[in-house]
């Protein structure tokens, strides 16, 4: 082992260090150039098929180059980097072509279009190239296409710790720089503070410092190995705790049923996260399969390997229910891909757990096989092969065509904001619809295309055209009417960000409840927007006749379906507060009852 370390230190020479620092500096300068172009909305930021690939390549390829220097022969490095470049270009160009980028990396400046990769693409590209780079480095080290599992283990964990500590080094460096700026500010010198406000300084420094940290951690493999050993040891002792908790959860399901689980609407993601935690902790105990492991950890790892499959099966069932009820969407396709990978782990780990004559040795084969599966799945998701947007749009359109969802309840916004070019094509098809619901489909498809929105959940641009408040409201109790002064009020002139969109936008919709909350015979209007996660606003008329927000209904109450349904049916009455308010010098102090939203909502029958 010492001979290998000496050889590595000889290989990673001063020339390699200089090359790595140069790569980091050039990366920083080019990234600043792109950042400045995006900030100023100048070329190439306005050319999507140039800006997105450039940014994706400059974020990832230099890191691969820095890590390859000193470990891959020049010919090997060139072949690998060219292959990585080709994959990055395919992923980035497809990201632009598909037209779905609700969460861009750079965002928009001054409400002008700035093209950049989606956060989803950047994240999964990092995952893809971390796995691929570890496979390439291990294969080069062993001189084989498929290296030994011990080599994969050493290379992958070393690379993970290098990246982690390099990020920590950059954060610590800027913490010290800001400390120095604060010290100089004490004596009225602000040059360092001004310097740290400039992106032309920060971006190159971040990239150069990151490359420097990658080099320092690379030439001290024994230190990295020591940190890895300590980290895995600590993580492995969390495994018995996780096993007890997951076992307890699975044992409660026959008694509690699955209904409560599905009502959370995020059961699949929680179950996937649980399976991922078990996988990481099992591998922390297993390591390279040669470590001496205490009996409690051996028992915990074998038990956890068995538990992953039932957890994934519950997740598959949860996703299946949502798909049967509402069809495929992009998120559900992504979740299905994650469940596919998790299922391969679960089946393989279950097989390994039943090999009693070995210490989970088959995990090595399972981990290697599944690494290649992850790469294949990610390539399929981020290319037209299995584009989640395409599958989601086709599923929703098929449900509409088969009558599984009525036209009045169809989610046209999904097609526009999450369907990309496939959704736009579907909207054009709906505008040419024929049949009994043709008028509705044509009108709604044209309306959603005309929305002045960049993202589905972003508030709409305030329209200067008159808005029909009555048309935007569903008034309760049925047959009631909004007060005439409420309808006639000039809501566009009201300077209050708390007013719902249904008062100022033709696209906003609200439930309007006519109440007499004060018990004085005067009407108040409670508006609850139809969009999820909106607070209710209680409007009352003042002495001057103007309606203003008098009180707010909390998120936890508007999110409770039972509350809204009871209000619509008129099944409520006025009740005094359990505790009176305090009047402190004319200031009212209210006491809020301590209870979780789930507890309060579950009391309603």
UniProtKB/TrEMBL annotation:
Keyword Coiled coil found: no
Organism of provenance: Duganella levis
Stretches that traverse the bilayer: 17-35, 47-66, 78-97, 117-138, 159-187, 199-217, 229-255, 267-287, 299-321, 333-352, 364-386
Record's keyword annotation contains Ribonucleoprotein: no
Protein's recorded name: DUF4153 domain-containing protein
Highest classification ranks of the organism: Bacteria, Pseudomonadati, Pseudomonadota, Betaproteobacteria, Burkholderiales
Residue ranges of coiled coil: none
Source domain of life: Bacteria
Alphabetical UniProt keywords: Membrane, Transmembrane, Transmembrane helix
